[in-house]
Amino acid sequence: MLNSKSFIAIDFGAGTLKLAEFEVNEVGGLKLVQYGTKSLGLEGAQESTREQVVLRALQELIAERGVRSKIANVCAPGFHVFSKFVKLPPVDTGKVGQIIEYEARQNVPFPLEEVAWDYQIVGTTAGGELEVLLVAIKTDVVDGLFRVGDGSGLKLQLVDVSPAALCNSFRYNYGDLEGEGCSMLLDIGAKTSNLLFFEKGKFYSRSINIGANAITQDFANESKLKFNEAEVAKIEKGFVSLGGAYEEPEDPQAAAVSKIARQVMTRLHIQVNQTIQFYRGQQGGTVPQRLFLSGGASVMAYTAQFFAEKLNIPVDYFNPFRNVQIDPSVNVEDLSRVAHSFGEVVGLGLRNLAHCPVELNLMPETSIQRQEFQQKKPFLIAAMFTLVAIVFAVGWFHGKVVSIKETTLDELKQKVQPLMAKQATMRSAQTELQNVKKQTDKISELISARRYWAEVLNELRRIVIQAETKTKQKLDTDVGVWIETFSPHVAESAAGFEQPGRFLPGQDDLSGLMGFGPPPEQPVDSAPSAPPGENEISMISFLCRGVDRESVTPNANSELAFALKAELEASPYFTKEGLSLEPIVKDEGAITFSFGVSAKLKKPFNLKYGLD
């Protein structure tokens, strides 16, 4: 809801500028305070002169009507607006915006960077597809509307389009008809016409590039009149010829206008018929039950009878003020003559009330930023003067602070000098404390290392016993394995480190030797290892010997070897990366077999513990 009591709605039509000032009444509805129209003539339809003509007409209208409000909702001219209904497949809510942007790039006839565009999801089909109304207008057109607004002292807060504004206006005033079959609204403008369908909550519209200016232009060409003169003759004498055998008017201009009007209306009727067929075939609509006419060209005599005859349905004029309160100061009789052309204006006014069925806004980012800057300009000027005053105040304050700091610094120097004499003594004591801590840490490491090898050997004994136990349970036969030789590997320096060698020659992987398939592309024990530090044991190698049980189970020996490897991998003392298993070798003429193991300690053992 706006802070100001009243607000303005402006329809920048191709041929006529329409303005209305509204208020919100006591029950939250719309109340018309005053209204006005201004013809734009031929110059208003030409791009080169349109902006100046519209600005002048708006300024005159505001001055004549004494409009008080500065807040305005505006409707862009229909011939500048691109609109299209598209259907999107069912998608997640979060992806709807991306898909619609893709559709906009495919359908809008201009690069999206050059337009202001918006969309509205108006419903879903029986198959779950989303029905979306997509609208776009070139940014420079909207910038022109903002320049007109700025030149008239207005703040534009919303830029709508004709189909959306007409939809909101119709549903506000004729919502009771949506359950009684399909209703059509034909808005005949100066350059374009909008055809809208309403049925059971559904909404569909199409813009038709035929308007009342076509009648004026054809009549001007035929009668050799200027456009403005032809427009006056059309308004004063024009009507739609009923066709067939009838007596023509005695006035040749009236006769000529009537025939031309029928030709143009016939072309419009063809487009209406085609749209009805599309609506029924592609949109799933039903046969229209009634037609409402709106727009400035719809009041030409016999227009309603023409469409009633062609479409064979009831035709009435659209009253956008049907549910709008009229201020007592408004002349209702004068309003009734132009009410049919205020559909967009009422739709704009409704946007300041509650939620509307279709809510679009084509305000480009550049216009919003410029408008915000204009609002902030007085504050920026005030801020500049304030900043100058602050600079002078800061200069004076700085001089005062410097004087105080100099006095305080002299006092602190006298207090700091005795403390600086003690600084050297404290530094010497701190260095001695650090040396003592280093010695203490080395002693702690040495004490911890005394137990380390005993823990490693106990762990190996546990691993061997556990491997025997698990293999025996798995094979259901007695097995035996023990460590025959044990070799820790010491590196004298990082530069001279070499990975410990194997116990036996042969293949690089135990599985290939025992028939478990081809060896992996990169054996674990072939991966490069980081060199240990100087005088450090990080690798151990040991030769295991076991009782040959292949006569009982063919894979008994390999099962035992792999069980031992698995226990080493699970041990907290060894790493998986440094663990390697040598191929199994059976002893000739003996009942044992052997295999070598290399393992890397998680915690390397430093042999160079000592006190410096």
Q: Output the structural class.
A: alpha/beta
Q: Name the shape in a single word.
A: elongated
Mean pLDDT: 82
Q: Main sheet?
A: 6 strands, mixed
User: How many E-type strands?
Assistant: 19
Provide the spatial order of strands within the biggest beta sheet: 8-4-1-2-3-14
Q: What is the helix fraction of residues, given as a range?
A: 40-55%
CA radius of gyration is 47 Å
Which segments are poorly predicted (pLDDT under 50) over 5 or more consecutive residues?
A: 493-530
- The percentage of residues in β strands lies in 15-25%
Distance between the first and last residues' Cα:
83 Å
Number of helical segments? Answer: 15
Features of the shown structure:
single chain, 612 residues, alpha/beta, 5-stranded mixed beta sheet, 43% helix, 23% strand, elongated
Description:
The protein is an alpha/beta fold and 612 residues long. The chain is built from 15 helices and 19 strands. It has helices at 47-65, 96-107, 139-151, 162-174, 213-223, 227-237, 252-282, 303-311, 332-338, 343-350, 365-421, 423-450, 452-475, 510-513, 556-570; strands spanning 6-12, 16-24, 30-39, 71-75, 81-88, 115-124, 130-138, 155-160, 182-188, 193-199, 202-208, 288-294, 315-317, 325-326, 481-491, 536-547, 580-581, 585-586, 592-606. The strands form 4 sheets. The chain has a 6-stranded mixed sheet, sandwiched between helices. A 5-stranded mixed sheet has the order 11-10-9-12-13, sandwiched between helices. Strand 12 (288-294), helix 8 and strand 13 form a beta-alpha-beta unit. The radius of gyration is 47 Å and the shape is elongated. The two termini are 83 Å apart.
